Every structure is written in C-alpha cells, then in structure tokens.
Amino acid sequence: SQKIEQNSEALNIQEGKTATLTCNYTNYSPAYLQWYRQDPGRGPVFLLLIRENEKEKRKERLKVTFDTTLKQSLFHITASQPADSATYLCALGSGGYNKLIFGAGTRLAVHP
Amino acid sequence: GAGVSQSPSNKVTEKGKDVELRCDPISGHTALYWYRQSLGQGLEFLIYFQGNSAPDKSGLPSDRFSAERTGGSVSTLTIQRTQQEDSAVYLCASSLGQANEKLFFGSGTQLSVL
Fold it and tell me: Other CB atoms closer than 10 Å to residue B62's CB: what's the count?
C-alpha cells in the first residue's frame, strides 16, 4: 500500500540555522508533491508545490527538492526563526483532482 | 467569508449519538474535501465533492459516515451511531477544482466521543 514517512521525532534547531525536513514515500508515483504548515488547533496551510519533472523549487526562505528516483523530498527553511516553529506536512498527488495523501508531519521547534 | 469555515469547532458527544459537522468553503470553489486527522497521524482522506456530486467517497470508513453538499457550497458530514474510534479532528478543504492545485483548509472540528 502507499506509504509516506516523515520523521516522527521533533526537529530542534537554533535560530538562524537551516532546518531540513525529509519526506519519503513508497508504492506511489506522484505527479506532484506539496508541503503544508500546520499550527496547533489550525488547519494546514499550503506552502509549496513541486511537480515530478521539477528538481527544486524556491520561495523566499523555503526550498523544496523532489527526487523521484530516491522517492524523496527535502524541505529546507534557511535562516530559521522561532516563528517557523510548527508541524510540516508533505502530501502527494497524482493528477486529476487533489486527492492528496498526507504524511503524519514533522514538528519543528526553532529556539532563540 | 475569506476562508473555509467549519462548525462547530468542538463537539463532545456520547457513544451511539449522531453528529453533524458543517463546512462552508471559499466562495467560488467547486471542489470540496473532507479529511480526518487522528492524534499523531497523517490526514486521512474521506470524500471529495465536485459541485454537488461526490465522485470519490472511497475514504469513508463505514456506512455510518455520509456527506452531502448543496448548492455547490455548504457541505455536511454526518456520523451516525458514533463510536469512540470516531474521535478525531475533521478537516474540510476547498479549491478551485483544477488539477495540481493547493487546498485551503478550515480549522477543523474536534470530535470527542465519550
């Protein structure tokens, strides 16, 4: 069955450093991958989308890579700030309508 | 409103009771999704609406779960004879109905079945 793995342990980093979160998947050939941010008590908020034919996407301090051979996406936040502390979810989709398959998310804590 | 609105934000019910959860999508969004999020788990797809039709309801866990959408807008998710394992956050999302696009989520309804 399709499976998405994100590091279940929280990632703790120092303010100003680069945070790198990993999303691995199996038994799936996604057409695109999305990253969302979720704060406690709130719904996920869309951050970035990367398509299968794209290797890298950037938006301000965010960078996403997508390796369909390794079946892996990496999500980077550069110059991290305490306000970046949240849970980050990756989601896979395959054309048509957006029946996204979500990972369980990785909690990021950025310390001053 | 500017975003996806869900009500109630919290619902506590007794086992065996029926509950209705409501979702008001962003105006003009033709696609609407229901997901369920249990503690420490990823979002679990329940059902997808395009307009008032539900071409994919494959994620509904059992026949106790049903959903409808009227006027291409408001959607209601109904859980009959609730069980403790139904306790979770139920999230609604909407989008323009195009491929490869982002979803806009509501804040969810926290359902607790005692």
Answer: 10
With vertex at residue A60, the alpha carbon angle to CA A105 and CA A86, rounded to the nearest 5 degrees, is 25
Task: Give the model confidence (pLDDT) of A38-79 as tens digits.
Answer: 999 999 999 999 999 999 999 999 999 999 999 999 999 999
- The reply to whether omega before B8 is within 30° of 0 (cis) is yes
- pLDDT 10s digits, B47-88: 999 999 999 999 999 999 999 999 989 999 999 999 999 999
The answer for A 75-94 residues in CB contact with B (under 8 A) is: 89, 91, 93
Alpha-carbon distance of B108 to B105, in angstroms, equals 8
Angle at B78 between CA B74 and CA B79, to 5 degrees: 160
- Helices and strands (H, E) in chain B, number of each type: 0, 11
Chain A nearest C-alpha distance from B100 (Å):
6
Using a CB-CB cut-off of 8 Å, the residues of chain B touching A98 are 31, 33, 95, 99-101, 103
Confirm if B82 and B113 have CB atoms less than 8 A apart.
yes
**Residues B48, B14: Cα–Cα separation, whole Å:** 28
DSSP-derived secondary structure letter, A10: P
